[in-house]
Specification:
375 residues, single chain, alpha+beta, 14 helices
Length: 375
Amino acid sequence: MSKKRRMFDIDLPEDDGAETFSAEKVLPRAGVGVGVGAGGEGRRGPMASAIVENADSLRSRDEVAAQIRSENDALAHEHVRLKQQGLIVDLIALDQIETYKLTRDRHKGFDEELGELVESIRDLGLSNPIRVEQRSDGRYELVQGYRRIQAYTRLLEETGDTERYGRIPAGIMAKGAALETLYRRMVDENLVRKDISLAEMAQLAVDYAGHPLTDISDPDKAVALLFKSASYSKRSYIRSFIPVVNRLGEVLQFVHEVPRALGLALSARMEEMPGIAAAIKSELADWDNRSVEDELTVLRRFAGEMPEQKAPPLRPGRPTAEAKAKTSFQLSRPQGAAKCVAGAGRLEIRLARDFSTIDRRKLEAAVRSLLDQIE
């Protein structure tokens, strides 16, 4: 009987105390491709790697989106803050701006100084934007800059240049500002101007008190509210002019030309003698072609500033030789309306234009031609 041959010699290693693992601890669960690599280290399969990379990508994308949202929120808050202060400036078409919400504190008569503003804008542009409030219908309501709007309108009419003068730089305020705030903004800007008269400020207080949307019906209280930034003495002067504009505003053509001393004296005199207002109205009722000085002379006489013996013997406006010699009319010119006043020994032409810029010889020739034609 032959011996069986030994096919393999297997030497089992001795137990060296190395830790062993079960297959389920090393191998992944069903569907996850993780196995055992060299040295027993774990290795991700293709699907596991894709899942991990996708999770990392989503996490990075969420972080970027959160950062963008945070930056957008900060920009939105800053935009609202600047807009509330009227610091967001844009070019607004003139025909998109309304001027009806606020009663303007400017006398709506002939503005001799508007021509200077027109020439300044023509030469240098507008250095101070107007301020508007955005309305719910997409249009805008003027808060500050009535004369600047007038100047742009005149330049547009003169030049037809819609690219340059059809739109005006405007600071846009947020919608919904209180009416009191809008009036205060308009008033505070105009307080720094030297040409705004006490009568115009008094008239604004009267109009504000009569506005149906305001909480104040007393013009004296309106002065305290609107002119809070003014000194106590100035508010007192404005209040003194309220009787003047209330009782004589409808008949006075040049109320904005009444100086402070005359206005205070006239107000005190009307308080002492209530019939004076009716007498002044009667004196001026039919005198349509009077000048500024004519009107002030009548007011000075009734205020007691002019001695009675120096007063005109007859009422102005009645058929005296001087009254018949006075006449006034307006002519339409490219620069605006030219107001002409003719009287005994004088001829005035008021036009929003600086005549001192015209060559003297040209101006002299024009005046000589005018005088020759009316001889």
